[in-house]
Amino acid sequence: MTWIDLANPVPKAAPESYAPIMWEVGEIYTLPLLSGGPNRPFYDVLDERVSHREFGAVKDDQLGSFLWVACRTRWSSASNLGFDLEHRAAPSAGAIHPIHIVIKRPDDDRWWLYEPRTHQLLELKHARTNLAGLYNQSMLVLDGGLAIQVLFIAEPGKTLGKYQNGCSLVWRDAGVLLGVMALTATAQGLNFCPLGITGEPWASALADQGKLVGVGLALLGSVASS
């Protein structure tokens, strides 16, 4: 067995300030807000959660509700790390939230960054070219048809500014966010399936070397018609 030891993360005695990435964006689209929501017992959601591999199209109000519940920033506070700390549905080491959500709709060649503080989608310039190989790779794993591609991109420098040996924390942040999104999809009657691929080497091509890294991909769709 081969196991990569990422060592034990510990807070640094003196945190290092980090300047987050400034994304090059084009069009900005404001998502619909959550209007009401499913009134389902949490234990029922846990019991019913399952990965689906067939997908129908997702409407904008469904996507907006999904991201609003699973990913939005509820509140933030200043820090000495060079960026604000945030509270979201998913726990994150140090309230840092280094995982970015980038989506691709099935009828659109563009990739869009979800901005959790404003509940908007920001068109990522150059992503259409840089992530073309990723889309093709994901189709080899599972042809999602009408599903939305959900890419998890980590910005490790945010976490590593506070923690020594912090790489495992980044992976755990990605995993717990994936779980929250899977449960949210179940609660909202959507189909969700994580894929095994990380998004590399394409995701890291969106920024200078070492700034970004792909840490997961998933598919989101409505219940497929029989």
Task: Name some characteristics of this structure.
226 residues, alpha+beta, NADH Oxidase, 26% helix
Describe the protein's architecture and organization:
The protein is α+β, with helices and mostly antiparallel strands. The protein has one domain (44-221): NADH Oxidase (3-Layer(aba) Sandwich). The protein is built from 6 helices and 11 strands. The chain has helices at residues 42-48, 60-70, 127-130, 132-141, 156-160, 167-187; strands at 10-11, 25-30, 75-77, 85-87, 99-104, 112-115, 120-124, 148-154, 163-164, 191-195, 213-221. The strands form 3 sheets. The chain has a 7-stranded antiparallel beta sheet, with helices on both faces. Strands 1-9 form a two-stranded antiparallel ribbon. Helix 1 crosses helix 6 and helix 2 (60-70) crosses helix 6.
Number of helices: 6
* Share in β-strands: 15-25%
Count of distinct structural domains: 1
Q: What is the averaged pLDDT score?
A: 95
The quaternary structure here is single chain
Write the layout of secondary structure elements.
Elements: E1 10-11, E2 25-30, H1 42-48, H2 60-70, E3 75-77, E4 85-87, E5 99-104, E6 112-115, E7 120-124, H3 127-130, H4 132-141, E8 148-154, H5 156-160, E9 163-164, H6 167-187, E10 191-195, E11 213-221
Helix pairs in contact: 1-6, 2-6
Short description:
It contains six helices and eleven strands.
